[in-house]
Design goal:
Elements: H1 7-45, H2 52-55, E1 57-62, E2 67-72, H3 77-82, E3 87-90, E4 108-111, H4 120-127, H5 131-143
Antiparallel strand pairs: 1-2, 3-4
Protein name: HK97 gp10 family phage protein
Pfam families: HK97-gp10_like
InterPro entries: HK97-gp10_tail
């Protein structure tokens, strides 16, 4: 006989195994809420011209809401969030660019770039602000 009494450790392992499903379910609920809050806040913070960017913001769950991806499906969503460097814009189908007020159509122009207008990062930061407190509450519920 080795003299080690592991009954308390065995009891702790059993208790943790019993609370795991409930803790996991609560965690999924919290993650789902943060995902949806991130979308709502992102839509509220997104700059609006036509409304396409705002309306394209959505959320996709990962591992049955143990994580999520949130953001726009509009192709230019990242350009708005992070800005763009100066770049050349070349004519495609019509062979020339034309816009109201231009003296004549041109084959290309040098775009000066755009400043970032973050909307998703601040939305996620705001949505996750209470996360530490909420997870502490879940942990407390699990062990009491």
């Amino acid at each position: 006989m080795n003299g080690w009494d592991t009954s308390e450790l065995d009891g702790l392992i059993k208790d943790l195994d019993e609370v795991a499903p409930r803790t996991e379910a609560l965690t999924r609920t919290v993650v789902k809420k943060i995902g949806h809050d991130t979308v709502t806040l992102g839509q509220n913070k997104a700059p609006v011209d036509t409304g396409n960017l705002k309306n394209s913001i959505g959320v996709d769950p990962i591992d049955d809401w143990m994580g999520f991806e949130a953001g726009p499906t509009a192709a230019y969503g990242a350009d708005v969030e992070y800005g763009t460097e100066p770049h050349e814009i070349k004519a495609r189908n019509a062979g020339a660019l034309f816009w109201e007020g231009a003296e004549h159509p041109v084959k290309s122009i040098q775009h000066p770039g755009t400043d970032p207008q973050p909307y998703m990062r601040p939305a996620f930061d705001q949505a996750t602000e209470p996360l530490d407190k909420v997870m502490a509450q879940i942990a407390k519920k699990a062990i009491t």
